[in-house]
Amino acid sequence: GTNIRAQVITFTQSGIKAEQVQVKRDAGYVMMDMNLNLDNIDLSSQEMLILTPEIKAADNTVMQTFAPVVITGSKRGKALNRALDFGSYTFPNPPQQIISKNDTKSIPLTLTMPYNERLHNATLAFNEERIGCACENEYTDRYNVLTPILPPMFHPEYTLSYVVPPVEEVKRRSETHSARLNFKVNRYEILRDFDNNAKVLADIDGVVNELRNDPNLKVEEFHITGYASPEGNYDSNMKLSENRAKSFVAYLSKTYDIAPSTIKTDWKGEDWEGLRKVVADLHLDDKENILDIIDNESNISVRKSKLKQLSGGATYRLLLHQYYPPLRRNEYTISYTARSFSIDEAKEKIKTKPQHLSLNEMFLVANSYPKNSEEFKEVFDIAANIYPNDPIAQLNTAAREIDSGEVDKAIARLQKVDMPEAWNNLGIAYIKKKEYATAEQYFRKAAQAGLSTASQNADQLSKWLSTQ
Q1: Directed axis angle between helix 420-432 and helix 391-403, to 10°?
Q2: Residues 304 and 230: beta-carbon distance below 8 Å
Q3: Which of 63, 117, 147, 267 is the most exposed place for a label (fewest CB within 10 A)?
């Protein structure tokens, strides 16, 4: 930027004026341009003036001393030139210019030094030394030319957007688990002592009892879905998945005395979708062929036949023995409501069962800790993990990341959130990356959407840029 100083400085003893003072900051340097007006100079023909520009910081330490400008009377100038030529006189600080007052009425002067933040509070002064005809010092004085050299430094303050999540009046939750019970071929009775059913049933007991016995929760519904693996007859497998689902319902009702009205039952028959997910994660020679058959062969009988033909039947045997058995299962979803928690209760609950907290409760917990404390950070990270699809959870976590310097991580998160507050935070993130034009665009977009914080941030950025 260029800052023009309108003041005229008169050196009271000599009558020199510093006029048209300009300060430019460019490419890491500060340039101070001015003209020294000699119209009213008071200098006899035998005298000379030595003007030494000097920059002092606010604490009065000298930042830089420039080579002086020497102005002579007519006779003194001639004598000085002879003395310099013969080496009989030397200046302690070699001058940048030696000017006779009779040769010019205006001396252009440019002073340049590397940019330093302290220049915003520094002073440019001239030390003036008047030398008489016998080379005696008649006087030395100091005159301020420019204070401050650069405008006071502007320190912008940007405000990140945090959004208070709405209160969840009724906290409805659900958990889905797989019960991979083993059944005898073409049978659907649950046999505790068959294969590893004892362990599976123990796991089910643990899940159900934990939810039912938690005084903070109220179980509302069980949803049971039966699945069969895709070998054998399609219609028989549909019936088999139905019977296995109903058998599991009967087990739950008898074991836990669950009211039938709270249990919903569904069955899907052959689990081709589950098979596809399993195969997609495997490293099989026939992987792409299997996926192609599942995706593009709609006739189930033909599909099964094609799978059996792969690699002379070896691929199908592998699927049948290793990957089909886990598909014969029931999935059960338990829906429940959780009560509201005080901040103190929520502080403990977030360590053990964060899914029982609402986003609003997590927000209140986070803000009970000092900003940028480890606890503050941790709560927002938990919220983002528990609520991965909630834009407010992602927004608030990204704000925390920007504060912590995880800028790229925050940008990736915010670019998936379509909210003015997210655009505002993106503006601040791009400022930290020194991408100011992009930051301005995001602030403008958020401000146009009515977010006053973004307007204030844009103003702060604009003021700061004007000083750069």
Answers
A1: 20
A2: yes
A3: 117
Tens of pLDDT, residues 62-72: 999 999 999 99
248 with 190: CB under 8 angstroms?
A: yes
75's CB contacts (< 8 A; 6+ apart) are: 45, 46
> Which residues are within 8 A (CB) of 345 and not within 5 positions of it... i.e. 6 or more apart?
none
Q: Quote the CA–CA distance of 105 and 101 in Å, as a whole number.
A: 7
Structure tokens at 285: 């020679």
DSSP-derived secondary structure letter, 194: S
Instruction: Extract the tokens encoding 141.
Output: 């004085």
Tens of pLDDT, residue by residue over 134-162, are 888 999 999 998 888 888 878 899 999 99
pLDDT digits (tens, 9 = 90+) for 367-381: 999 987 899 999 999
Residue 360, pLDDT above cutoff 90: yes
Bridge partners, 219 (sequence order): 336
Phi–psi pair at 112, nearest 5 degrees: -130, 140
Residue 418: alpha-carbon gap to chain centroid: 16
Amino acid making up residue 208:
V
pLDDT recorded at residue 203 = 94
**Pairing relationship of beta strands 217-228 and 330-338 according to DSSP bridges:** antiparallel
Check if the beta carbon of residue 69 is closer than 8 Å to that of residue 99. yes
CB 3 within 8 A of CB 22: yes
Strand 97-100 to 69-72 pairing: parallel
Give the distance, in angstroms, between the CA of residue 165 and the centroid of all CA atoms in the same chain. 20
Q: Which element (helix H / strand E) includes 201?
A: helix 197-212
DSSP 66-120: PPPEEEE-HHHHHHHHHHHHHTS---SS--SEEEETTT-SEEEEEEEEE--GGGG
Instruction: Please enumerate in sequence order all residues whose Cβ is within 8 A of that of 207, keeping only pairs 6 or more positions apart, or say none.
Output: 175, 177, 334
SS3 label, residue 63? strand
How many angstroms separate the CA atoms of 99 and 103, rounded? 7
Residues 454-463: contacts with CB under 8 Å, at least 24 apart: 454/420, 454/423, 454/424, 454/427, 456/159, 457/158, 457/159, 457/424, 457/427, 457/428, 458/427, 460/156, 460/157, 460/158, 461/156, 461/158, 461/427, 461/431, 461/436, 463/154, 463/156
Place of tokens 């490293």: 283
